[in-house]
Amino acid sequence: MTAARPGCPVDAAFDPLSPAYQADPFAILAALPLAEAPVFYAPSIDHYVVTRYADVARVFDDPATYSSAVVQLPLVPLVPEAQQILLAGGHKPQPSMVSLDGPAHGRLRKPAARAFAVKRVAGMLPAIRRVAARLLDDLGPAAEIDLVAELAFPLPAYIVFSLLGAPEADHAQLKRWCGYRAVLTLGRPGPEEQIEIATQMAAYHDYLRRLVNDKLAARSDDLTSDLLAIHDEDPAQLTIAEITSILFSLSFAGHETTTGLIGNTVRRLLEEPARWDAVVREPALIPGVVDEILRFDSSVPAWRRVTTRAVTLGGAPLPAGAKLFLWLAAANRDPSVFPDPECFDLRRANADQHLAFGKGLHYCLGAHLGKLETRIVLEELVHRYPRMRLVSGQELQFHPNISFRGPQRLRVRIAP
After folding, report:
1. Which residues lie below 8 Å from residue 389, measured CB to CB, with a gap of 6+?
2. Quick check: helix, strand or coil at residue 184?
3. Pairing of strands 316-318, 311-313
4. What is the dihedral of CA 393, 394, 400, 404, to 10 degrees?
5. Lowest mean pLDDT across 80-94, 206-220, 251-265, 309-323
6. DSSP-assigned letter for residue 110
7. CATH code for the structural domain at 76-300+334-413
8. Are 171 and 158 in contact (CB under 8 A)?
9. CA quadruple 36, 42, 47, 51: dihedral positive or negative?
10. Which tens digit of pLDDT belongs to each residue from 333-361?
11. pTM of the model
12. Which of 193, 198, 239, 360 could be a cystine partner for 189, CB 3.0 to 4.6 Å?
């Protein structure tokens, strides 16, 4: 690191979209002198990187100083043609639930929270278990499978898209559109790729608008209909455009993180077979294991904020308008909070203190649902395949973005 910005170290080599980081961000983390520079500037992404647990928590707890306005802004500027395609398709740069602060955020979050109330999520348990069992039954006598394609990908998609009221026949296409969104906002696509992604995103927005219009005419037991009922009571309080925006946010966040969480969980348990065998012997460990995975290898390793005023954070002076890369994966391995943080501890007492779901105003609405889905998947797998193992020699690939992480494929051997 070299001091190139007044009072703040600069690491010109740090790049969360580099092949080395994508392959193993924890190797990059281990090599950084974070004790001397817990906050540093990364020119590759024009963000200040925040690594310490206390500093990340402070940012989450102070939305007045650290705004979420940048959360959905593309990491790299879009070419004019891509911008035009998005605007023509109705993908307008209007604030959404995850990029609003204060009362405006609360106004949109309150109706969306109905979908993820603890009572409603608990009522979904039989459906989650039924879908997981059906997907596994469909495997038949297979000896090896891609766990992501067969289970981690379709299960969360079915649950969240059904919650929104989308027909099952559309789920696979919706999932593909959400993948495009991750690259557009959180990756580094080139001009030609931006145009292709913009075309897909315009189609995605058009689908959601049509879904809302269809529900206007024919309501059912789903979140979209619930939101329209609120709109009926006071159209100015929740507009049709805002309902589409809520669906846009939830249709992505409601499954992408869980797909990654399931993949990360199975990978980390199987990479040390003794871990898997311990959970097979003692399934009561599963809830704690899910929290330890969220701490040890979160499916949301980073998030973003922007300063609204000049402030000092982690000893580094930051100007107003400074974009922050909140490195949750680093904060979740802060030794001042988690003793021996590099150790995956099946019985870690404070694993649930992780910041994988954020904190405060923007704490993840779907946290309980994602953990429930992952717990049910683990319960099914340890019961059906107690001797499951990773297929040796496979090279894991990860979606090229800064904020969502999970293996795109995970080959496992399920037959003895």
Report:
1. 270, 273, 276, 412, 413
2. helix
3. antiparallel
4. -110
5. 80-94
6. H
7. 1.10.630.10
8. yes
9. negative
10. 999 999 999 999 999 999 999 999 999 87
11. 0.91
12. 193
